[in-house]
Write a structure and sequence with these properties.
alpha/beta; about 30% helix; binds 2-amino-2-deoxy-6-O-phosphono-alpha-D-glucopyranose
Length: about 250
């Protein structure tokens, strides 16, 4: 894992956007795995800016979102579908047919998961996966557990996640209790992964993710097995000195 401590949210967003941009320039028909939440908002803004300056072309890019709340229609303002169009897809030249987000209002969630997994396999998997991290160490909506699912599946959200994500809803009761998420194997098969963590509330999970220990109770800790992960992290929670002194991760970028 390459660790890049960073001093501002704007620098983190610019660096993540640069990595995505480089990937698209090198491979115009890139398959991107995309995340939602507060963390990647700045990165999407930067990517839109690059597109508007004529530096990026999304016409051949395919995207797969990590997850979606079960029970929310694409028009629901708190759905990840709505978030993605509002913050990104509506502002770039991506083809509608190349956008994939699990259908939160599906009548058959199990079939939807199977279809979603097949679509990802059909394009040969994800080239570059963008990830945020939950306060409990979840990625996508893969929640801490003694068992994790490999493929796209329906998941019961943990109380911690419901509480953390309630900031986007009117109140706690409005937060869906279930979601569809890509599984850990799908995420881990991505050729390259960019993980972003910003804010002091991410200190606990990030220290676990960089600890050298792997536990399904901290799903993001599995990323330590992957050989091409870059963690762009708030300097307040992971100072540069930690990188150079770290025995597990001596590599500085
Ligand atoms: C949600 C998403 C995750 C995201 C996490 C952190 O639970 N399913 O993909 O990484 O929130 O969100 P934030 O960036 O707002 O802290």
């Amino acid at each position: 894992m390459k660790i890049k401590p960073i001093s501002s949210y704007s620098k983190m967003s610019k660096l993540a956007a640069k990595i995505v941009a480089k990937q698209i320039i090198n491979k115009p028909n890139t398959v991107l795995g995309l995340a939602t939440g507060g963390t990647p908002l700045g990165m999407y803004r930067e990517l839109v800016k690059l597109y508007k300056k004529g530096k990026l072309d999304f016409s051949k890019v395919t995207t797969f979102n990590l997850d979606e709340y079960l029970g929310l229609s694409p028009e629901h303002p708190q759905s990840y579908h709505y978030y993605m169009y509002e913050n990104f897809f509506n502002h770039v030249n991506i083809e509608e047919k190349n956008i994939h987000i699990p259908k939160g209002d599906t009548k058959d969630p199990v079939q939807e998961c199977l279809n979603y997994g097949r679509e990802i396999e059909k394009v040969g998997g994800i080239d570059l996966q963008v990830l945020g991290i939950g306060v409990n160490g979840h990625v996508g909506f893969n929640e801490p557990n003694i068992n994790l699912e490999a493929k796209t599946h329906v998941i019961q959200l943990s109380n911690e996640t419901i509480r953390a994500n309630s900031r986007f809803f009117k109140n706690l009761d409005k937060v869906p209790r279930k979601a569809i998420t890509m599984g850990m194997a799908t995420i881990m098969k991505s050729k390259k992964i960019v993980l972003m963590a910003w804010g002091i509330e991410k200190k606990k999970p990030i220290l676990k993710v960089t600890s050298g220990h792997i536990a399904t109770e901290v799903p993001a800790s599995l990323l330590q097995v992957h050989n091409d992960v870059i963690l762009i992290v708030d300097k307040k929670i992971y100072p540069s000195s930690t990188v150079s002194n770290s025995l597990s991760y001596p590599e500085k970028i």
